[in-house]
Please model this.
Amino acid sequence: MRILKNFRWWLAGLVMLAPCAMAEQGKNACVDCHSKLEGNLRVVVEESAASVHGHKAMSCTTCHGGNAEAEAKEKAHGNGFRGRISRAQVTELCGSCHADGERMKTFNPSLRTDQLALYHTSVHGKKREQGDERVAVCTDCHGVHDILPINDPRSPVHPVNVASTCKQCHADGDLMKNYRLPSTQFADYSDSVHHEAMAERGDLSAPTCSTCHGSHGAVPPGAASVANVCSTCHVLQAQFFNESIHKEAFPEGCATCHGSHKIKHPDDNFVGLAKGAACAECHSADDDPGRSAQAIHDRLSQFEAQIKDTRGLMDRAASAGMDVADAELEVAQAKDALTKARVRVHTASLPRVEAELNAGRTVAIKAHNTAEEALRERTRRRKELLIPVTAFLAVVISLGAYIRELERKQSD
Model:
């Protein structure tokens, strides 16, 4: 018991002394000095402490050089002190750690160490090597002292924030003129189905700039690779497109019909010859492909109307208390067939779309018949119920007449 008691006192003393030991170990001339300054020179201390580098106990001297243990400012700013890091130095400075596999193992073994090599292959890196100081470097995207992990919602490279980060340069019309690039990409993306999924529905798997263009090895996809980029998510659509006649006709692939940044959610009106339909851009009712496209649109619309009609019958039957569970399953299968048919539109083949719809029509007809039978059963039950109800009412009326006749005789 005495030993245990002494151990508890020793442990309590250790806990009390720990903050003092940590404070002594964390003594830093850079922090001590900058904490007394004003403005940004002081803010950097707070930002660095809250950053991913601060959490890994990295000192200011890692990037800026100098001596953090010196008492005097002159000595602290000696020993290879860099001061302000120029844009020309940023990528190689960051790479001195992030491209060093052995060093990164001590901080985060899961991080890739090829970012610097990829950057040199990118448009940004190549322009930078040519002396262009306006192109993006590490700190433009990740921040300077306030660098946060990519999974932190406050990070400028968190999926939700990537587009806004790229916008800083690519929505600047004056800057983009120098590269003969448009500056509408962010506005177009903000009006796209991808942005809706990411920003409004919170789907972090939805595409953003780096999904298609890359991050460190940021290279705009060439005309021949757009379909390859889209196919990373839209696998079946890409497969069917590759099997279609459009494969050779449109080397730019998916972007021909869907666009690149301002991608809208396509509906059945996207196919056919109506105003605004993608097919109408190239075809008309005077050519076979145009007539085929319109036929595909009509078949899809007719089948959707068939499902809607069946759904209405089922709702009527269900509201009457009839069991339509089998019909529910059949309608779900019909909807699946419609979805598959819409995907097969990318084959540009009416027979292949029709094949999927025919499979769906079979189960849709079964569901329709099931719903109609449920309604007929409801009618039969009502008729069958009408006989005993009528008989009961007749008995009640007769009994009432008999009672009134008894009451009349008693009064007489």
